[in-house]
Each structure stands twice: as structure tokens, then as C-alpha cells.
């Protein structure tokens, strides 16, 4: 029987895997089976943590807004502020509100006081 030379497909596939794992340490960057396990694990973690990152940022924004709204000039809770904004159909998401709260508190105070004034007018009518 004649000798069969193997092609380059498998070698090319393993080289691509090694490029992905080049920043891993020790056997995790050298051994093919270990590279595959670590690659799978890394991709699973990345997928999971993208959702977790969204959650963490939303929590951070809510905390920042709540901290500013409970200060002296506004003096009511985050949930009440969001409820009033929703009632008046002001389309400001939490990320934008948190940026306003950090950079320009007076602007947030104006937004919240408008809500309070409009609620008083609605109650009087």
C-alpha cells in the first residue's frame, strides 16, 4: 500500500485554537484537548457575564439616582420619581438619569420638582 500524507486541515484548525488560547498559561495554551476545554469554558463565562454586566450597571444607575433623590432638595424616593416620570410620559432611561444625577444635580432637581408640581396640580383638580 502506498503511503498517505495527511492534509493540513486539522493542523490549521489546531493553529486557530492555539491563537485563541495564546494568552492562557502553561498547559492551557499548549495542549490541544486542554485548549478546547478552556476555550469552551471561557466562551461560556463571557456569555454569562454579558448578562450579569447589564444587571450590575442597572443596579449602579438605580443606586446613584436614589442617592441623589433622597438628598435635601428632592427628598423623596427613587421609586416615586420613576413612577412620576412614567405617569408624565417622560422618556428618560435610568442610564441618562444617573448621568444627569452625577454631572448636573440641579437639572435632576428641576425634573423632579416639575413632577411634584404637576402632581399637586392634578390633585387639586
From TrEMBL:
InterPro entries linked to this entry: Ribosomal_bL20 (IPR005813), RIBOSOMAL_L20_CS (IPR049946), Ribosomal_protein_bL20_C (IPR035566)
Gene Ontology MF terms: rRNA binding; structural constituent of ribosome
Record GO cellular component, one term: ribonucleoprotein complex
Pfam families: Ribosomal_L20 (PF00453)
Transmembrane stretches, start-end: none
Protein's GO biological process: ribosomal large subunit assembly; translation
CDD domains cross-referenced by the UniProt entry: Ribosomal_L20
Keyword terms of this UniProt record: Chloroplast, Plastid, Ribonucleoprotein, Ribosomal protein, RNA-binding, rRNA-binding
Compartment(s) of residence: Plastid, Chloroplast
Family membership: Belongs to the bacterial ribosomal protein bL20 family.
Functional summary from the UniProt entry: Binds directly to 23S ribosomal RNA and is necessary for the in vitro assembly process of the 50S ribosomal subunit. It is not involved in the protein synthesizing functions of that subunit.
Family matches, as PANTHER family: 39S RIBOSOMAL PROTEIN L20
Protein's UniProt name: Large ribosomal subunit protein bL20c
Species the sequence originates in: Aristolochia fimbriata
Gene label: rpl20
Amino acid at each position: 500500500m502506498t503511503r498517505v500524507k495527511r492534509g493540513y486541515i486539522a493542523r490549521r484548525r489546531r493553529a486557530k485554537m492555539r491563537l485563541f488560547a495564546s494568552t492562557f498559561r502553561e498547559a492551557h495554551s499548549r495542549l490541544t484537548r486542554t485548549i478546547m476545554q478552556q476555550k469552551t469554558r471561557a466562551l461560556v463565562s463571557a456569555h454569562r457575564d454579558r448578562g450579569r454586566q447589564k444587571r450590575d450597571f442597572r443596579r449602579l444607575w438605580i443606586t446613584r439616582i436614589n442617592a441623589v433623590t433622597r438628598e435635601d432638595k428632592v427628598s423623596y424616593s427613587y421609586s416615586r420619581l420613576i413612577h412620576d416620570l412614567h405617569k408624565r410620559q417622560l422618556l428618560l432611561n435610568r442610564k441618562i438619569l444617573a448621568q444627569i444625577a452625577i454631572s448636573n444635580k440641579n437639572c435632576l432637581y428641576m425634573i423632579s420638582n416639575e413632577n411634584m408640581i404637576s402632581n399637586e396640580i392634578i390633585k387639586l383638580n
